[in-house]
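INTERNAL TRANSFER SHEET
From: sequence group
To: structure group
Subject: Lipid-A-disaccharide synthase

Please process the attached sequence and return the structure record in the designated field. Keep the field labels unchanged so the import script can parse them.
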Amino acid sequence: MTRPLKVALVAGEASGDILGAGLMQAIKARHPDAQFIGVGGPRMQAEGLDSYFPMERLAVMGLVEVLGRLPELLGRRRRLIRTLIAERPDVFVGIDAPDFNLGVELKLRQAGIRTVHYVSPSVWAWRQKRVLKIRRACDLMLTLFPFEARFYEEQQVPVCFVGHPLADAIPLAADRAAARAALGLAEEGALVALLPGSRGGEVERLGSLFLDAAARLRALRGGVSFVLPCASAERRAQLEVMLAGRELPLKLVDGRSHEVLAACDAVLIASGTATLEALLFKRPMVVAYRVAPLTYRILKRLVKSPYISLPNLLAGRFLVPELIQEAATPDALAEAVSPLLDDGQVQTEGFDAIHRALRRGASERAAEAVLQLLEPT
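Return from structure group:
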């Protein structure tokens, strides 16, 4: 090329920021003078992204919850499309955030800009007609998981399964003793990690529930203790309020969720990306899921998949317990976690097989696929 490669990227939350930073690193290895514009978080900005506005303005969860932010989101998307059409990047990569990014991709592709969507939306589970928009909007879909690539192949959408960067980064075997020592936790004794989510709404719905479940589990197994990683100072303050008046052997940790997962024996966890991290650390888990009642009623009618958690989707079977909405009670959660402290081998063997299947050098494969798209045909 006679000028530096110009890549536009948009990520909407922390997991996308991680993926975007890895992709940028891999592109820079091939094009050291590449320029990056768009929207991203601190990791992508550290790699050289000129972010047009804070990534957090795109972070919203749930069907009902998004309505209050809709005017702002639509306005930001219109302005972003105009800016990117004027900038004429060589390629646009929308990282997750499908409700935002697919609209951007459609307009940019119509304007003659190559478009890639990185991280498949859950079209195989619900709103399957979205695949028609995806086919119109993007020149290439990059998937993290093999079952997603099979779906797109059947729907005649250009696709590349790249694997997952976390599977590359997390070792096949984690050192539990070293992680406990690093966190200042007792070397012996059963330890359960509580991961009620990273967003305020998630912690509001699941934080007290998880603490109640921990109390029930403590009644079942007197020697168990708990550790909970706080995603931010705000989440820590929120959880400290919930902990007030409780006598529970629990340690709050600022960040360091990977060390917490390496240190523990079992996990009580909110459905989401963190379940993949627990899987990769080979820690048996129980998954809980609660959303606003109206959101749940809508999702229940739309979702086609029998599973909600990534471990079960990847295994194609109920490998881990899923307790949803009213079924997620303190007693039910405690009774599901308790046997995993004695024998979680069925889960961990399944997790190991999945880890090896996802360990593909994802960022490098994604960069290669993006750059191949730009080669003359």
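Handover comment: The mean pLDDT is 92. DSSP finds 17 helices and 13 strands in the chain.
Transfer complete.
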